[in-house]
Amino acid sequence: MRLADAILDDCLCDPAAPLARDPARCYGLDKAQAQAQLASLKEWLRVQQAMLWANRRDALLLVLQGPDCSGKNGVIRRVLGGLDPLGLSPHSFQAPSEEERRHDFLWRYRERLPVPGMLGVFNRSYYEALVSDLRDGLCSPADIPQRQSAILAFERELPAASIQPLKCYLQLSAGEQKQRLHRRLEQPEKRWKLTLGDLQDHRNFAQQQAQWAAVLSKSHSREAPWYVIPADHRWLRDLLVASLLARAFERLALDWPARPAPFTHADLDSTP
């Protein structure tokens, strides 16, 4: 049902060259095939999410990073749409508020970690503290090594809290980003979200990708690996993330809780 391990493992980050692969590669799949496979897989994910909630033993944390237009919101809609919202804990992170800046930079992320039974989603994450915060003047270059160490320590704490991270970087080409920005300019339902910062970020695309490549290289580990997802094709991006999520569920080996019923048929039938 999900994609084969060989394809998923091919997306594992190469710390020596994290963003060297072609973001338009498609593994021999086509759009119709991928969309049909995703539709079947989503039903299986729905059952797994329900069992995750029923057991309240583990939590999953899907971390989505990527440049503007890479499809972080799209993954949430297309892959997680149809799951039980009561078992989802999605959070989108923009620049920290004044209150958040009064705390340690990891505070707002710790506050939003999923509790056992939940599927948490971070649309952008604590890794923004190494790139966006530096760009926006919220930290200095001298702060980055300490922040990198703090993030690695933070991720090492997650398994002890029964939280299994799944980190996906959605890799987009500059050409595809430009096309998607053009389409957003033409669509009123998306145009309102554009800012001058989006234009500046596109102009600085190569520089920003170099920064993210350095971040991925230094934060890829066996315990919390990065998967670099080719995102030029939306249909492949969605199926890859769904398949990685399915493999994370498989590793939890979930089943329905074997709990005795709180009452019997006789108890129920004795009720007027």
TrEMBL record:
The keyword Kinase applies. Keywords: Kinase, Transferase. Residues 29-249 form the Polyphosphate kinase-2-related domain. The keyword Transferase applies. It holds the Pfam family PPK2. One of its GO terms (molecular function) is polyphosphate kinase activity. Belongs to the polyphosphate kinase 2 (PPK2) family. Class I subfamily. This is Polyphosphate kinase-2-related domain-containing protein. It comes from Stutzerimonas kunmingensis.
